[in-house]
Automatic annotation (TrEMBL):
Pathway: Purine metabolism; GMP biosynthesis via salvage pathway; GMP from guanine: step 1/1; Purine metabolism; IMP biosynthesis via salvage pathway; IMP from hypoxanthine: step 1/1. Purine salvage pathway enzyme that catalyzes the transfer of the ribosyl-5-phosphate group from 5-phospho-alpha-D-ribose 1-diphosphate (PRPP) to the N9 position of the 6-oxopurines hypoxanthine and guanine to form the corresponding ribonucleotides IMP (inosine 5'-monophosphate) and GMP (guanosine 5'-monophosphate), with the release of PPi. CDD domains: PRTases_typeI (cd06223). Belongs to the purine/pyrimidine phosphoribosyltransferase family. It comes from Limosilactobacillus portuensis. This is Hypoxanthine phosphoribosyltransferase. Keywords: Coiled coil, Cytoplasm, Glycosyltransferase, Magnesium, Metal-binding, Nucleotide-binding, Purine salvage, Transferase.
């Protein structure tokens, strides 16, 4: 698996250090709000569990699965709800946890959905942000790292379902997806 990686962008240690900082900010913001933390499956699950362990707050956790990728390395722009939340979001403070924001379609879909359902506030924490990829205007409130416009894998991010379990974030060798 490691042989398919061209370059490591963020090591396990760098990820941990940045998560310590982000969690401190989120703890301060949410300490009196009892937020509902929504983790966007499957990519953001690793980031979410590592973050919530660092946050000293009362919070609930739920999951939502949306898909826009259909296996390739670029987004189709269409987002579909694959698995809904268990929770009612009405009047709740919501914190969405994402792995990466690229075109912005996924995030826009989620924010619109949660607001439509009556959420009191919706904020977003993403580990990675690829600003060059943006097709719709949407902004994350908390960003781990701004990343270049390359296809990344690891620490939750996948290519065709694989590489999520790499402990770091790296650039996938183009040869891996060019041959598919
Ligand atoms: P968006 O809708 O284009 O912003 O895409 C967001 C989703 O696409 C993320 O939640 C990821 O699952 C996936 N994605 C975007 N960029 C990458 C990447 O570089 N590697 C792996 N998955 C990605
Ligand atoms: Mg995702």
């Amino acid at each position: 698996m490691n042989n398919d990686i061209e370059r490591v962008l963020y090591s396990k240690e760098e990820l941990n250090r940045r998560m310590d900082e982000l969690a401190k900010q989120l703890t301060a913001e949410y300490k009196d709000q009892r937020p509902l933390i929504i983790s966007v499956m499957t990519g953001a699950v690793l980031f979410t569990v590592d973050m919530i362990k660092r946050m000293d707050i009362m919070a609930k956790l739920d999951f939502i699965d949306v898909s826009s990728y259909y296996g390739g390395t670029s987004s189709t722009g269409k987002v579909k709800l694959v698995q809904d939340l268990k929770s009612d979001v009405r009047d709740r403070s919501i914190l969405i946890m994402e792995d990466i924001v690229d075109t912005g379609h996924t995030l826009k879909y989620l924010i619109d959905l949660l607001k439509e359902r009556g959420a009191k506030s919706v904020k977003v924490c993403t580990l990675l942000d690829k600003p060059e990829g943006r097709q719709v205007e949407v902004k994350a409130d908390y960003v781990g790292f701004n990343v270049p416009n390359e296809f990344l894998v690891g620490y939750g991010l996948d290519y065709q379902g694989y590489y999520r379990n790499l402990p770091y974030v790296g650039i996938l060798k183009p040869a891996v997806y060019e041959k598919d």
